[in-house]
Write a structure and sequence with these properties.
Layout lengths: L3 E5 L7 H8 L5 E4 L8 E5 L2 E5 L12 E4 L4 E2 L1 H13 L8 E5 L3 E2 L2 H12 L13 H9 L6 H4 L2 H22 L7 H15 L3 E2 L1 H10 L4 E4 L25 H4 L10 E7 L2 E3 L12 H9 L12 E3 L1 E2 H11 L3 E5 L9 E9 L4 E2 L7 H5 L2 E8 L16 H14 L3 E5 L7 E3 L7
Parallel strand pairs: 1-10, 1-11, 2-5, 2-10, 5-7, 6-8, 7-9, 11-15, 14-16, 15-19
Antiparallel strand pairs: 3-4, 12-13, 16-17, 16-18, 19-20
């Protein structure tokens, strides 16, 4: 049995939660490897919606091991609230175990305050941050002043590191932004309370993963956001603060890259983006509004409306390359039902060059381009009851076939509705 990485091929919001939930039945371990509670994975099981921000989507399955890896930045309050909410709703199976890496970094109140203060002072040059403190937490990690989960559990070490951070952050907040100073003792008392609540879940998760691999268990590695929000390969600077591509599944969980076998890229049947940044296929018209309404395109974390547009295959091709994607899972195909004509972006055209394979590196260059489209006929038949590929209308199959050709990798799953069962499975990546 293979170990499988799941990543988004666009700007996030591709429907990874449903796919991870679907694949979780074939894996014994589900591990989240990056991001924080700026992510929101929406699951619909038996008509009931559940949104997870930190806990891996596999938590709804019994007899699983769910891991929050060292590459994730953890807001302890959010983690505790998620655990308690799942337990209160009877959605935390008794035989499923949850572990949090002792090396994961924590999000502190001053991270959120810095995040919001910066965005408020950017005067029209906003990045579109969720304000959850994700970026500042990763900054402290790289600056080697971050407070990890293991530090939080050590009272004296936590107090020492907190004092140094509060002194620095208060200087920054009060002198540069004119914000009120943060209070060290209040944070200390609050977070020591959190420490005792999360202590039972804290472990050396790298070691747990190694043990599970040696036992022949299959692991599903779950990413957040999408490839084009990657800090290295995304549409910089309109990106997140972590590496969202498949290679980070290794670094973000503490296992070697030889343990990664298959990479499934989640691709929405059209394109959406939440927040700021270039979006060449965006539709500010009736079709864009229709995609937004029918697809219920609201951010699971922020509630913000997502910008909607035609499927951009330049984005998908680049994602296939940088993440080594071996198969595509197409989501929300049903949202396109009823559109007479569909368009696929197959390249970007600037005054001097055509970009069919990669996204130009700067916002100015990208914004100077125009999308090059192919048109295809749509379909009107309701596809939500389709469970085999040949049950789809011929034009829907043609659309998928063209997408497959342009991406250069096979389509292995098609989602035709929000429910867990509303899915066409063409190949099981765990059997590769």
């Amino acid at each position: 049995m293979a170990n499988v990485v799941v990543v988004g091929t666009q700007w996030g919001d591709e429907g990874k939660g449903k796919i991870v939930d679907r694949y979780a039945k074939d894996a014994q371990v589900i591990a989240r490897f990056q991001g924080g509670n700026n992510a929101g994975h929406t699951l619909v099981v038996k008509g009931e919606q559940t949104i997870l921000h930190l806990i891996p989507s596999g938590i709804l399955h019994n007899s699983k091991v769910c891991i929050i890896g060292n590459g994730v930045v953890v807001d302890p309050k959010v983690l505790i609230e998620e655990i308690e909410s799942l337990k209160n709703r009877g959605l935390f199976p008794p035989d499923t175990r949850l572990f949090v890496s002792e090396k994961a970094h924590t999000i502190m109140p001053y991270h959120r305050q810095v995040d919001l203060a910066r965005e408020a002072h950017k005067s029209g040059k906003k990045i579109g941050t969720t304000g959850r403190g994700i970026g500042p937490a990763y900054e402290d990690k790289i600056s080697r002043v971050g407070i990890r989960i293991c530090d939080l559990l050590d009272e004296s070490l936590f107090r020492e590191k907190l004092a140094l951070n509060v002194e620095e952050k208060n200087f920054y907040l009060t002198r540069l932004f004119g914000e009120e100073p943060i209070k060290e003792q209040e944070i200390f008392d609050e977070y020591r309370g959190y420490a005792e609540k999360i202590r039972p879940y804290v472990a050396d998760t790298s070691l747990i993963l190694e043990q599970e691999i040696k036992l022949g268990k299959s692991i599903l590695f779950e990413g957040a956001q999408g490839c084009h929000l990657d800090i290295e390969h995304g549409t910089y600077p309109f990106v997140t603060s972590s590496s969202t591509v498949a290679g980070n599944a290794s670094c973000g969980t503490g296992i070697g890259p030889s343990s990664l076998h298959e990479v499934v890229g989640i691709c929405k049947a059209y394109t959406t983006r939440v927040g700021e940044g270039p979006f060449l296929t965006e539709l500010n018209d009736e079709i864009g509004n229709r995609l937004q309404q029918v697809g219920q395109e609201f951010g699971a974390t922020t509630g913000r409306k997502r910008r909607c547009g035609w499927l951009d295959m330049v984005l998908v091709r680049q994602a296939v390359r940088v993440s080594g994607i071996t198969g595509l899972a197409i989501t929300k195909l049903d949202v396109l039902t009823g559109l007479k004509t569909l368009k696929l972006c197959v390249g970007y055209q600037s005054d001097s060059a055509l970009y069919p394979e990669s996204v130009p590196p700067t916002p100015n260059l990208l914004n100077s381009c125009k999308p090059v489209y192919e048109e295809m006929e749509g379909w009107t038949e309701d596809i939500r009851n389709a469970r085999q590929i040949d049950e789809l209308p011929v034009n829907a199959r043609r659309y998928l076939g063209r997408l497959e050709t342009l991406a250069g990798v096979p389509v292995i799953l098609v989602s035709v509705g929000a429910g867990r069962e509303e899915t066409i499975v063409l190949k099981n990546p765990f059997s590769a």
